[in-house]
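dumping this here so i dont lose it
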């Protein structure tokens, strides 16, 4: 891992002390035992992802959609944050973390202990649901619901607070994320394939604006090709080395 230390040694210290910006993808949760969306769970009962995760699919068969989310909530709540999430908490404790923009809906950054104002769950979270008919009610979960589909207080149904196919991202979240991709920023991507837009565009926006981009991923991707440093392999090991080394530079 000399590659990492050598790269960090050559970085402008101000770049680090400004706080690191993270873009996190499904690969960061693999070490916790969660599969990626299009992995095994993506073939749930041989349904297309759109049938399980779209307003259209929900209207047609809310029970099927809730069954899938009930299963994902069970798996997610049973699983635990891993070394990547814990390292992000360490960085925040040392004031070296600007923001975590995560595509993951598992809620692990909150559970690991990062502050809510440091986390942008740009694709939503399975730890919350809200009224499908927008009566305004929201609900929090730390265990999967037993009875499905889950009713709202108004008599309509609750739906998971995740961004589905055919839905747009929260515009404040997206704008805040884009604004973080600036010059004099160190943007670190972990376990993201660079395939799901508009989040996939963020590292490219960063690169175009003069930011330094570091990519941790098991495979090369469009992001690794533009990254100033690409660290290939399971990130739970290499990222801890990276973050521990960064922190060591700022601890007297
Ligand atoms: Zn309602």
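and the seq i came up w/
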């Amino acid at each position: 891992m000399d590659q990492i230390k050598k790269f960090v040694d050559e970085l402008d210290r101000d770049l680090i002390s400004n706080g690191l910006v993270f873009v996190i993808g499904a690969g960061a949760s693999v070490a916790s035992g969660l599969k990626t969306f299009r992995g095994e769970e993506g073939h749930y009962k041989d349904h297309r992802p759109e049938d399980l995760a779209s307003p259209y699919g929900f209207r047609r068969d809310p029970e099927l959609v809730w069954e899938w989310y009930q299963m994902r909530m069970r798996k997610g709540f049973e699983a635990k944050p891993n070394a990547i999430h814990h390292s992000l908490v360490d960085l925040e404790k040392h004031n070296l973390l600007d923001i975590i923009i995560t595509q993951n809906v598992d809620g692990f950054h909150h559970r690991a202990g990062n502050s809510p104002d440091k986390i942008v769950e740009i694709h939503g979270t399975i730890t919350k649901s809200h009224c499908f008919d927008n009566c305004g009610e929201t609900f929090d979960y730390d265990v999967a619901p037993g009875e499905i589909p889950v009713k709202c207080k108004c008599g309509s149904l609750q739906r998971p607070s995740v961004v589905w196919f055919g839905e747009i991202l929260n515009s404040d979240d997206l704008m805040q994320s884009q604004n973080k991709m600036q010059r004099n920023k160190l943007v670190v991507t972990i376990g993201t394939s660079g395939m799901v837009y508009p989040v996939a565009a963020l590292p490219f926006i960063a690169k175009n604006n003069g930011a330094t981009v570091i990519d941790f991923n098991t495979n090369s991707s469009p992001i690794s090709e533009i990254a100033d440093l690409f660290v290939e392999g399971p990130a739970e090991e290499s990222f801890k080395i990276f973050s521990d080394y960064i922190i060591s530079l700022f601890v007297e």
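Residues 131, 133, 135, 137, 152-154, 156 surround zinc ion (CB under 6 Å).
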